[in-house]
Design a protein that fits this description.
single chain, alpha/beta, FAD/NAD(P)-binding domain, Guanine Nucleotide Dissociation Inhibitor, domain 2, Guanine Nucleotide Dissociation Inhibitor, domain 1, seven-stranded mixed β-sheet, 15 helices, disordered C terminus, RabGDI
């Protein structure tokens, strides 16, 4: 290992693999190492035997569940916005040629004890049972304002400067009630808590537009897409991309120890007695535990079922958002379901996840409102993991550490972390100015 690399990437989680692909495409010399013998790190997908080993300590799942190899159970379940940043990254890097996607059937929201389809346009708002007649009219006016809004055209701004006006003030102008605000903020704009209400409204309007544009991409029932065979396909696709551009991969490398010089800057990584030199290190929090702090904890339930989630129009893949206010919590809860229609389970089987930011030490109690919506389950597993964020100064030590995955069941926050790390490493923005309609990848979804 006498060679010197521009960047050594530690861990094959999705964030690390996307960065490794982007940096390789840029012509940097990248070495990618992982202590595990599989791709995906925390964001891997497991077959049934691996799932049993991880949560039950043995490798004998009941035969009635079907063949182990037919399962691809995501450990960090997330859908992609069809018009979102991750899809732009996939098209920009041409990784789409290694993957196949399929639209997700539905997007729903939990309100007053029931599950409802999320209305995303002025026409859907008029039909939604979430609102009474007068509220529908008010909501429709607000949706039209958002649909017509263009940052570059002041005529569409209605005399408001959305970089100054808060979301609360903008919504007050339309007289919308708390219930409507709840589903707009959490199920359309995908905010994780209510802090957004006192922040500039421009961010919320952009998020709502992204939802509507994503929905329009596939005249389907939701704005989300998801890869066939599960999310474990994504890190491998970016690993392939990196390899095409000269990146080197080494799995199963124990004790990857990051080495520093006298100035405290990274100078290499040692594994099995050999040191590879480098100028920069990219890694997940587990590789540099003394440079991160705990910022929270995710609680998650994984259920195997023989039916779709009730009250979701028999959807084979679906997201249900349970806003914090509906549950009397500080943060939202997310329900994610996919099935044999995305090749992640044998025919007739469904995999559902309930996730939230843990607020107590009793995940089974905390997740109950989401689990109660599932109906009967064949098997259920509970999982919690701590979330970490970097506290180092990358400009001083040249270590670029990703933030742990949050409880959300969509990728927007994940990709923003990657893009900000890319900018810190290279000093430039990722070029995401792809014409999604012209991109041939769109035909494959």
């Amino acid at each position: 290992m006498d060679e010197e690399y521009d960047v050594i990437v530690l861990g094959t989680g999705l964030k690390e693999c996307i960065l490794s692909g982007l940096l390789s495409v840029d012509g940097l010399k990248v070495l990618h190492m992982d202590r595990n013998d599989y791709y995906g790190g925390e964001s891997t997908s497991l077959n049934l035997i691996q799932l049993w080993k991880r949560f039950r300590g043995n490798d004998k799942p009941p035969a009635v569940l079907g063949p182990s190899r037919d399962y691809n159970v995501d450990m960090i379940p997330k859908f992609m916005m069809a018009n979102g940043t991750l899809v732009r990254v996939l098209i920009h890097t041409d990784v789409t040629k290694y993957l196949s996607f399929k639209a997700v059937d539905g997007g729903y929201v939990f309100n007053k004890g029931k599950v409802h389809k999320v209305p995303a346009t002025d026409m859907e708002a008029l039909k939604s049972p979430l609102m009474g007649l007068f509220e529908k009219r008010r909501a429709r006016k607000f949706f039209i304002y958002v649909q017509d809004y263009s940052e570059s055209d002041p005529k569409t701004h209605g005399g408001l400067d959305l970089t100054r006006v808060t979301t609360r003030e903008l919504i007050a102008k339309y007289g919308l009630d708390d219930n409507t605000v709840d589903f707009i903020g959490h199920a359309l704009a995908l905010h994780r808590d209510d802090r957004y209400l006192d922040e500039p409204a421009l961010d919320t309007v952009k998020r709502m537009k992204l939802y509507a544009e994503s929905l329009a991409r596939f005249q389907g029932g939701s704005p989300y897409i998801y890869p066939l065979y599960g999310l474990g396909e994504l890190p491998q696709a970016f690993a392939r991309l990196s390899a095409v551009y000269g990146g080197t991969y080494m799995l199963n490398k124990p004790e990857c120890k990051v080495e520093f010089n006298e100035e405290g800057q990274v100078c290499g990584v040692t594994s099995e007695g050999e040191t590879a030199k480098c100028k920069k290190v990219v890694c997940d929090p587990s590789y540099l535990p003394n440079k991160v702090r705990k910022i929270g904890k995710v609680a998650r339930a994984i259920a195997i079922m023989s039916h779709p989630i009730p009250n979701t129009d028999e959807s084979h893949s679906v997201q249900v958002i349970l806003p914090q206010k509906q549950l009397g919590r500080k943060s939202d809860m997310y329900l994610f379901c996919c099935s044999y229609s995305h090749n992640v389970a044998p025919k007739g089987k469904f995999i559902a996840f309930v996730s939230t930011e843990a607020e107590s030490d009793h995940p089974e109690m905390e997740l109950k409102p989401g689990i109660d919506l599932l109906g009967p389950v064949d098997e259920i597993f509970f999982d919690t993991y701590d979330r970490f964020a970097p506290v180092n100064e990358p400009s001083l030590d040249n270590c670029f550490i990703s933030t742990s995955y949050d409880a959300t069941t969509h990728f927007e926050s994940t990709v923003l972390d990657v893009i900000s790390m890319y900018k810190m490493i290279t000093g430039k923005d990722v070029d995401l100015s792809v014409d999604l309609n012209a991109a041939s990848a769109a035909e494959e979804y």
